[in-house]
DNA sequence: CGGGGGCTTGACGCACCTCAAGACAAGTGG
DNA sequence: CCACTTGTCTTGAGGTGCGTCAAGCCCCCG
C-alpha cells in the first residue's frame, strides 16, 4: 500500500512526497498546522519538555519510549504513516519521541481546541487499546510469540500485505518487545529456517505463513 | 484514609456502608445509575459481552484481565475505591472484570451522554498513563523491581500510608506483574528479611523503608 | 480437631541474557 | 574501483533469573 523507501536509504530526494501518502487525515485543513522533516534518529520531543502539540506521521516512522535510570529502554509504541501521537494529557511530556528513519511530521497546536479536541478521545482510546494489547504480550508471552505478534501487528498496519517494511532496528524491536537484540535475531532466524517468514533485506520481512504466525501469537 | 475491611473478611455486614467511602464521585447524581454488590470472585462483565456501562468502585476491589487460549492470564489493572473502569470504546468488551473481594459498584449507562461523556477523556487518559507505566515494568524490570513498583503504586492509591491493604491474592499479583506466585512470594520474603516491608497478615503489607522501595523501582 | 485453599520454601531446569567473535552491508577516502 | 571503516546483525558458548515441580506450612473455617 505504501511503497516507502527503505529506512537505510537516507539520501535526500529518496523520500516520497507528502502527497504519496494517501492517508485520510483526521484533522481538517482549517486547524493551524505545519509540516517538518526529521532526520533519522532526531528528537521530536523529550521527557520533561512542555507538551501541547499533537503530531501526525506523513511518512517515515517514529518511536516513543521511556528510560530507566540505568539506561534500560522501553519503547511503548511505534507510529507509522497516518498515525497520530504526542497527546499525553499533561502539560509536560513523559516520553521521548524520535524519528526512526527520515520522517515527515505534521504538528497541530492542541490549544486550538475546536478542530482538534473532538479527535482526542478516539486517539487516546486507540493508544489505550494498543497498550493493553501489548501488556499481554510483555507480561505473558514467550520470545517467539512476541515476535510473531509484532510482525502481524506491523503487517496489518501496513495494509495486510506479505511484504512488511521494518523501519526500526533489531535494537528497537527488542526494546519494544522486552527482549535483547540477540534473542530477536535468533527468533527471526528460526522463523526463516522454518519457512514462516523470509528476510529479503535486513529491513524487510515477508510473511509466508500467516496462519502459523497467527497461531503462534494467539 | 480509607479504612476498609480486609479482603479476607467476607461475612456479610462486615463491609463498610457505601457512605463510608468519602470519595468525590465524578458523576452527578442526575445520571442514571444503580449500585450493586458483587461477591468475591464474581463476574462483572466478560470478554465478548455487550458493553455500554461504566463502573465505579464504591468499596472493594476489581481485577480486569485478558486470557490467552492456553489459560495464561494478564491482569491489566486493579481498581479500588473511587476508581472508574469498564470503558473500552467499543460496543463489546475485550476484557473480563471480576470482583476480588466483596465489592460494591455503581453503574452508569454510557448512552446517557450528557452527564458521562465529558469524563470519558480523563478516565481514558488515566488508564493509558497507567498502562504505559506498566509496560515499562513488564518489559524491562526484574521481579524485585516489579514488586516494589506494585507496592508503591497500591500504597499511593490508598493515600500514601505505610499500611497497605492487598485485597488480591499472590496469584493476582503474579498475573498483574507477569510473574509466578512463587516468585512473588520469594520477593516478599526477601524484602521482609531485609526489613524493607513487614507482612502483618497475608493481605496486609507495611512499608518500612519507602526510600529503598522507591530506589528499587527506579 | 480435621480439612482445604492459599502461601512459602527448596531443588532443579530452561528460556532468555551476557559476553564474545565474526559476517555483512553501506559508506568513505585514496 | 577497491581497501578500510563503521555500525548493525548473526551466531555460538556459557551463565542466571525466573519458572516448574514438589513438599510442607499456615490460617481459616466447618
Summarize the structure.
Two copies of one chain form a homodimer. The first copy, chain A, has 218 residues and is an alpha+beta fold.
Polypeptide structure, described:
The structure is a homodimer of 218-residue chains. The relative contact order of chain A is 0.16. In chain A, helix 3 (143-157) packs across helix 6 (210-217) and helix 4 (170-177) crosses helix 5. With 218 residues, the first copy, chain A, is α+β, with helices and mostly antiparallel strands. Chain A folds into 2 domains: 18-135, Sandwich (Jelly Rolls), CATH 2.60.120; 142-217, Arc Repressor Mutant, subunit A, CATH 1.10.10. In chain A, a hairpin with a 5-residue loop joins strand 4 and strand 5 (73-79). The longest helix of chain A has 21 residues, at 120-140. In chain A, strands 1-8-3-6 form a 4-stranded antiparallel β-sheet, with no helix packed on it. A 4-stranded antiparallel β-sheet of chain A has the order 2-7-4-5. Chain A starts with 32 loop residues before the first strand and ends with a helix. Helices cover 32% and strands 25% of the residues of chain A. The first copy, chain A, has 6 helices and 11 strands. Residues 1-23 of chain A have low confidence and may be disordered. The first copy, chain A, has helices at 113-116, 120-140, 143-157, 170-177, 181-193, 210-217, and strands at residues 33-38, 43-45, 53-59, 62-67, 73-79, 84-85, 96-99, 103-109, 163-165, 197-201, 204-207. Chain A is globular. The A-B interface holds A 66, 68-70, 72-74, 76, 88-89, 94-95, 120-122, 124-125, 127-129, 131-132, 134-136, 138-141, 175-178, 218 and B 66, 68-70, 72-74, 76, 88-89, 94-95, 120-122, 124-125, 127-129, 131-132, 134-136, 138-141, 175-178, 218. The structure holds a DNA duplex (30 and 30 nucleotides).
